[in-house]
């Protein structure tokens, strides 16, 4: 798993020039899209075979504020002449589309709004995305941008293998036999369970792994 | 291993009526609430749309109100314990209460909190905001929440309320028709916006003979353009290709398509259907009945699909007269008999996102 973040107040134009430089469409994007786009660049720029079209990587973007900063900018434009260039960024999922276009990701893309930064809820949705049998990798980000000046931006790249237990183990979470896991790829006979989540144990051994035995014959 | 989920209850709240049966009857009879609103929302141009009368909602915020009404109906039909910690709420919308921008917290998270509190849901709500496939994407994720064992029942509610914000945006993109939309028609010239809420309660338990299940779902991106569909129907085709193995082709009664009535969307869908080998399956598009209800569309149009299947019909595509796409899609202005126990719901949206869901009656 890889993690990156972009501290609030960072010059996004500088970051773009340093790490990207060849994608001028970047400057048309609203702040939330720029953040999501740059997080993705930082996560995958070293990928071998980058830009080879792929359907096995999902893009999930989470936030509390959705597209609020661009909503304000578009609403201001309505007073004169509503701007189509601003309107297209008033959808919380536009950032997922920008990442998919840049990287030629033809897999799942989804945007979720949460009441707060909630690692459990985020990890749950990431694990659930692996229920799609074509998804072997998830690029996820928390892109929260209440204004164009302040934000929280964290990105994660999670491969299906990251959710496997370290050894030959077949136990999800904390060695709870029979426990569920987020995924059970049928092609991995006997490979058993892929854990996706280490919940701190609640009493009674009630473990909440996010589990599915995905048998699709 | 059971990997299907049951639909235990449905609810709708639309300008055409407030029960699923009532709305189904209206659509079947070719009625619609689409009409010209000369000065809706203070927009410069008239708006041809399907909108709620505001008077009955005086003093209430429309978005959470219609969500609650649709969800309450679905929950009552399902008979679930909504306050259990095994019950999840998924709210699906594009713009929620955006008409209150500058006056209140208009985030979808704040709207979802109001809906959860009004319903008595105690678990943290999840909002899916995946453009115009939000409702369908919410059903996909709701199904996964159940299959993972995280929850025992999931209430999925999708809705959209129109506003100067949304109308101005679509006007700026020149995407709106100034008359009733004509899905797949040669003379189509744009979409109509619509308001509605629709809800479903899903569970792995409680399936009944004759009840409906969701067999499979998929979301795929075109990776092509943020505000226009792929010319080759890439994402729509890929979503179809993923879900098709879950359904016996002999059982597939119809496909409820997106059919926004824009030039590009309907053409794109005809190509995706062709590529998926589905040109011999009847299709229906309901935007001529409801307008484009955005966050509600995936759920509302699926509820109509279930009722149509129960009655053994393919609903009429209101507004369609003469085929205007490059592939011979089996679309009809009038009701036709349907045979089969399954149907597919197909949607596409901004951000290049597409989705497909398979429903089957047991």
Summarize the structure.
The complex is a heterodimer of chains A (217) and B (362). Chain A is an alpha/beta fold.
Can you describe this structure?
- The complex is a heterodimer of chains A (217) and B (362).
- Chain A is of the alpha/beta class and 217 residues long.
- Chain A has helices spanning 12-19, 31-44, 68-78, 84-87, 94-103, 119-129, and strands spanning 2-5, 57-63, 109-113, 137-144, 152-159.
- Chain A has a single domain, classed as Peroxisomal Thiolase, Chain A, domain 1 (3-Layer(aba) Sandwich).
- A 5-stranded mixed beta sheet of chain A has the order 1-5-4-2-3, with helices on both faces.
- In chain B, helix 2 crosses helix 3.
- Chain B contains 9 helices and 16 strands.
- Chain B is globular.
- Chain B starts with a strand and ends with a strand.
- Chain B has helices at 20-28, 62-78, 108-119, 134-147, 164-172, 234-243, 263-275, 287-290, 297-311, and strands at residues 5-13, 34-37, 47-50, 87-92, 126-128, 153-160, 193-194, 196-203, 212-221, 252-256, 282-284, 313-314, 330-331, 336-337, 342-349, 353-361.
- In chain B, the strands form 3 sheets. Chain B has an 11-stranded mixed beta sheet with strand order 5-4-6-8-1-9-16-15-10-11-13, sandwiched between helices. Chain B has a 3-stranded mixed beta sheet with strand order 2-3-7. A two-stranded antiparallel sheet of chain B has the order 12-14.
- Chain B is α/β, with parallel strands linked by helices.
- The chains are: A alpha/beta (217), B alpha/beta (362).
- At the A-B interface, helix 3, helix 5, strand 3 and helix 6 of A face helix 3, strand 5, helix 4, helix 5 and strand 9 of B.
- Strand 3 (109-113) of chain A pairs antiparallel with strand 5 (126-128) of chain B.
């Amino acid at each position: 798993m890889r993690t990156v973040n972009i501290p609030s107040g960072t010059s996004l134009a500088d970051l773009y020039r340093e790490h990207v430089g060849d994608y001028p469409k970047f400057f048309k994007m609203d702040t939330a899209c720029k953040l999501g786009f740059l997080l993705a660049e930082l996560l995958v720029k070293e990928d071998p075979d980058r830009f080879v079209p792929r359907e096995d990587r999902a893009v999930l973007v989470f936030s509390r504020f959705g597209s609020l900063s661009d909503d304000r900018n578009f609403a201001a434009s309505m007073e004169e002449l509503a701007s189509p260039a601003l309107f297209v960024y008033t959808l919380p999922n536009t950032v997922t589309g920008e990442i998919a276009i840049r990287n030629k990701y033809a897999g799942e893309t989804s945007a979720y709004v949460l009441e707060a930064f909630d690692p459990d809820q985020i990890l749950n949705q990431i694990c659930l995305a692996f229920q799609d049998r074509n998804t072997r990798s998830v690029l996820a980000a928390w892109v929260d941008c209440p204004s164009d000046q302040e934000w929280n931006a964290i990105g994660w790249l999670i491969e299906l293998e990251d959710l496997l237990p370290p050894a030959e183990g077949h136990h999800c979470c904390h060695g709870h036999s029979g426990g569920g896991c987020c995924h059970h790829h049928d092609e991995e006979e006997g490979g058993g369970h892929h854990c996706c989540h280490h919940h701190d144990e609640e009493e009674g051994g009630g473990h909440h792994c996010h589990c599915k035995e995905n048998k699709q014959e | 291993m059971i990997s299907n989920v049951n639909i235990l209850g449905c609810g709708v709240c639309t300008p055409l009526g407030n029960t699923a049966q009532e709305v189904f009857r209206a659509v079947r009879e070719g009625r619609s609430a689409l009409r010209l609103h000369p000065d809706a929302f203070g927009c410069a141009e008239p708006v041809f749309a399907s909108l709620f009368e505001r008077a009955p909602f005086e003093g209430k915020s429309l978005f959470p109100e219609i969500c609650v009404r649709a969800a309450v109906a679905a929950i009552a039909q399902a008979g679930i314990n909504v306050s259990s910690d095994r019950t999840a709420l998924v709210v699906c919308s594009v713009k929620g209460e955006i008409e209150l921008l500058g006056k209140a917290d208009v985030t979808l998270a704040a709207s979802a909190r109001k809906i959860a509190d009004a319903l008595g849901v105690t678990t943290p709500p999840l909002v899916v905001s995946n453009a115009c496939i939000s409702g369908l994407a919410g059903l996909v994720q709701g199904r996964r929440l159940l299959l993972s064992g995280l929850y025992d029942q999931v209430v999925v509610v999708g809705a959209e309320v129109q506003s100067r914000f949304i109308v101005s945006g679509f006007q700026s993109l020149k995407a709106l028709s100034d008359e009733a939309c004509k899905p797949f028609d040669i003379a189509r010239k744009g979409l109509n916006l619509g308001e509605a809420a629709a809800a479903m309660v899903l569970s792995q338990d409680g399936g009944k003979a004759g009840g409906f299940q969701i067999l499979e779902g998929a979301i795929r991106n075109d990776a092509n353009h943020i505000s226009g569909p792929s010319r080759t129907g890439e994402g729509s085709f890929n979503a179809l290709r993923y879900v098709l193995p879950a359904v016996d082709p002999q059982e597939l009664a119809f496909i409820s398509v997106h059919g926004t009535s824009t030039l590009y969307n309907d053409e794109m869908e005809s190509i995706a259907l062709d590529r998926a080998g589905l040109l011999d399956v009847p299709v229906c598009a309901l935007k001529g009945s409801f307008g484009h209800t955005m966050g509600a569309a995936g759920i509302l149009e699926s509820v109509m699909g279930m009722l149509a299947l129960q009655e053994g019909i393919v609903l009429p595509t209101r507004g369609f007269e003469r085929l205007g796409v490059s592939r011979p899609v089996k679309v009809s202005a009038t009701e036709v008999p349907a045979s089969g126990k399954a149907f597919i719901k197909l949607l596409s949206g901004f951000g290049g996102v597409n989705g497909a869901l398979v429903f089957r009656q047991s």
